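Tokens for chain A. Residues wanted.
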């Protein structure tokens, strides 16, 4: 993401999270966090810009202000880590995939029908799975069902891998149950390639979806089940799997939120979309499709910023009801940038958003939509002094980068 240039400074978003066994006797284990790689294909992150972008002077009377380029990049790294903090969730299934319970299948009308003779072990590439998550381990995942991918679901199967075909003691009958870190490594070994093959190379490693793994529970493993399923999922900051609709291969995977969405905040780090009346890090004022402006190849970050600076500014002015509102509320306008991997995967949309950085880094806590009254960290914003007529350079807002020569 990039902020809107505020003065002649350069303008400028998960990782391995907890491995979850969602079986009725579920346990949560987390691989060593030090091995997390926010650029890994199974991470759902917006890509941070690595280049210096366009220098643009902005008259404070005509547009919003922004944070310093390096600070904005840090903020966007927080978006990547905080908003999608559990991209690598894996799921354990009670009793393994050949359990005695039958798998509900869609009726001819496309809704989930009654149980059929198809066992869970028959689910394969292209199948979508849905269940009702509960906090009770005795009931969670008990209604696991195959549904049409056009219906809401939480997992899309990309490939089934039978570990039993590998002639190694690790997967032999009677072998010990793998720990959470081993299941995470199995996901990395098998599923990243499987998902790219399944999507024809069009899986966006920095988009809103992540690579996932479904594996047998401890009881299923003890009974001899060795099949694991690689797939695609969407995780939130709390590691819970979100509902998806449609096959991922047919979608724009851009990491964007709808206009008017607010993304929550915890300890300065963005979390999941939330009602704007609750504390949040930022509010989305527009979604821009870069393909409309750049129908050819990937535009450079500089070209993206040259287009997005006026486009996001106009969108912010329209959303808020005037060009001075953002300044009066001491907020900052920023946007995303698209990298090569996302562009090649077909993800070409970015969000224009408004929020506020705190001096210690991270996002301030905003309550209320910026269209109306808001508080920032519990206090109403104090508008800065008006800009005198004829002033060519803006008065810096608190926390903004200094003017040249200041």
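Reply:
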């Amino acid at each position: 993401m990039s902020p809107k240039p505020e003065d002649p400074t350069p303008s400028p978003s998960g990782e391995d999270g907890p491995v979850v066994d969602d079986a009725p006797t579920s346990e949560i284990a987390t691989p060593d966090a030090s091995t997390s790689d926010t650029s890994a294909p199974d991470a759902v992150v917006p890509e941070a810009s690595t280049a210096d972008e366009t220098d643009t002077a902005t008259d404070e009377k005509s547009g919003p202000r922004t944070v310093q380029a390096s600070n904005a990049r840090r903020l966007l790294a927080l978006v990547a880590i905080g908003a999608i903090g559990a991209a690598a969730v894996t799921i354990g299934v009670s009793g393994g995939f050949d359990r005695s319970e039958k798998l509900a299948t869609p009726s001819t009308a496309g809704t989930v029908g009654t149980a059929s003779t198809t066992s869970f072990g028959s689910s394969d590439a292209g199948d979508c799975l849905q269940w009702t998550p509960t906090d009770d381990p005795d009931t969670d995942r008990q209604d696991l069902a195959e549904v049409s991918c056009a219906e809401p679901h939480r997992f899309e199967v990309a490939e089934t891998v039978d570990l039993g075909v590998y002639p190694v003691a690790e997967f032999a009958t009677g072998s010990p149950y793998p720990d959470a870190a081993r299941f995470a490594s199995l996901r990395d070994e098998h599923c990243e390639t499987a998902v790219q093959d399944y999507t024809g190379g069009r899986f966006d490693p920095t988009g809103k979806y992540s690579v996932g793994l479904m594996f047998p529970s401890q009881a299923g493993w003890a009974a001899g089940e060795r099949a694991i399923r690689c797939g695609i999922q969407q995780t939130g900051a709390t590691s819970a799997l979100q509902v998806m609709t449609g096959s991922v291969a047919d979608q724009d995977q851009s990491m964007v939120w709808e206009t008017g969405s607010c993304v929550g905040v915890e300890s300065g780090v963005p979390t999941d979309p939330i009602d704007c009346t609750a504390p949040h890090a930022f509010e989305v004022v527009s979604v821009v499709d870069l393909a409309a402006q750049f129908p050819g190849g990937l535009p450079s970050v500089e070209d993206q910023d040259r287009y997005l600076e006026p486009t996001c500014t106009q969108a912010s002015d329209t959303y808020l009801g005037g060009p001075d509102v953002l300044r009066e509320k001491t907020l900052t306008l920023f946007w995303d940038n698209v990298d090569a991997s996302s562009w090649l995967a077909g993800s070409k949309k970015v969000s224009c958003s408004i929020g506020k950085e705190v001096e210690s880094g991270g996002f301030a806590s905003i309550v209320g939509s910026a269209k109306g009254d808001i508080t920032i960290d519990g206090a109403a914003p104090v508008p800065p002094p008006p800009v005198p007529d004829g002033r060519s350079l803006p008065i810096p807002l608190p926390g903004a980068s200094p003017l040249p020569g200041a």
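DSSP finds seven helices and 18 strands in the chain. The helical segments are 69-83, 180-198, 218-222, 290-293, 301-320, 325-328, 340-344.
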